[in-house]
Structures are given as structure tokens and as C-alpha cells.
Amino acid sequence: MAKTIAPFKSVIAMADIRFRKMQIEDLHFVLKNENLSYSHPWTQGIFTDCIRAGHECWLFLVDNEILGHSILSIAAGESHLQNVCIHPLHQGKGYGRILVEHMLTAAARRQATTVFLEIRSSNVIAYKLYESLGFNEVGVRDAYYPGKSSREDAIIFAKELMHES
């Protein structure tokens, strides 16, 4: 007798995924994720300044738990994706892609025509993600990021956003 196998459901499909605007009161969660994720994390002051400046500061929640955050600045029709962070224990599940797509929607909603970002040259996973989302490599900033023993180059990406006429 053949075994019946239940249809596969992805973890993402079963999760309750939400976004909400970042508030000052959320920074202890944001800083925890940031410090676990990066060798040179942003400070509370940087996040506070971004919130107060009115940047697009978003939290990524799964089943009501803050698993990620992102910051997008917009000026003169251009936007800059400044920070994207998913808690290290939850990376590799497609959450980063969902968060970046949300930020691209936020940029388009605010009439940005181009989104720029930069990543460490060693961050192959981020490179592949942004490339798959339609970003193009447009330049390099030499010795942009601090490192453990030396500075690391930043790869600059850009993506043109389509707007309905």
C-alpha cells in the first residue's frame, strides 16, 4: 500500500509575517539583532536619528516576534537602502528578500525613481540577493567598511523603479 504524503508547505507560507514602523521604544530589539548580525553594528543614536528624520524605518515581524529591520532614506527622487538586517538564526529562509521587497515598495510609494545600496565586497549572499531582485552593480567604494585588520571595499548597487503613468 502506498503512503500518502501531505503536500509541502513552506515555513514562510505558514508564518504570520507583518511589517510595522520602527519606534524609539523598539530599539532594544533592533540593537540586539544588529549586534548579533554585524561586526560593526549601527548605534542607538544612528537609529534614533533615522526615526526622527522621517526615514522609512521598518520592523519585520514573524508570529509577532521582531526578526528584522530596515532603513531607507529618500530625497530628490532617489532612495538609499541603508540597512537591512535579519536575525542570524532566521537567515536563509527568504525573509531578507521579503523585507527588501517591502522597502522597494516603500521607495516607490514615496516616488523614488532609483534605489541605491552598498554591501561589503565579501558578502556573496547579499550580492546574489540584490542581483536576483534586479539591482545592478554600478561602482565600488574603496576601503569603505571597517574590518578586523583592514578596511573592505563596498560594492554599490542601483535599481530603477518603474512607476505607473
Plain-language structure description:
- This protein has five helices and seven strands, in the order H-E-H-H-E-E-E-H-E-H-E-E.
- The radius of gyration is 17 Å and the shape is globular.
- 29% of the residues lie in helices and 35% in strands.
- Helix 4 (95-109) links the parallel strand 4 (78-86) and strand 5.
- The N and C termini lie far apart (59 Å).
- The longest helix has 15 residues, at 95-109.
- Residues 1-9 have low confidence and may be disordered.
- The chain is α+β, with helices and mostly antiparallel strands.
- The chain has one domain (15-160): Aminopeptidase (3-Layer(aba) Sandwich), CATH 3.40.630.
- Strands 1-2-3-4-5-7-6 form a seven-stranded mixed β-sheet, with helices on both faces.
Keywords:
seven-stranded mixed sheet; 29% helix; 7 strands; Aminopeptidase; 165 residues; alpha+beta
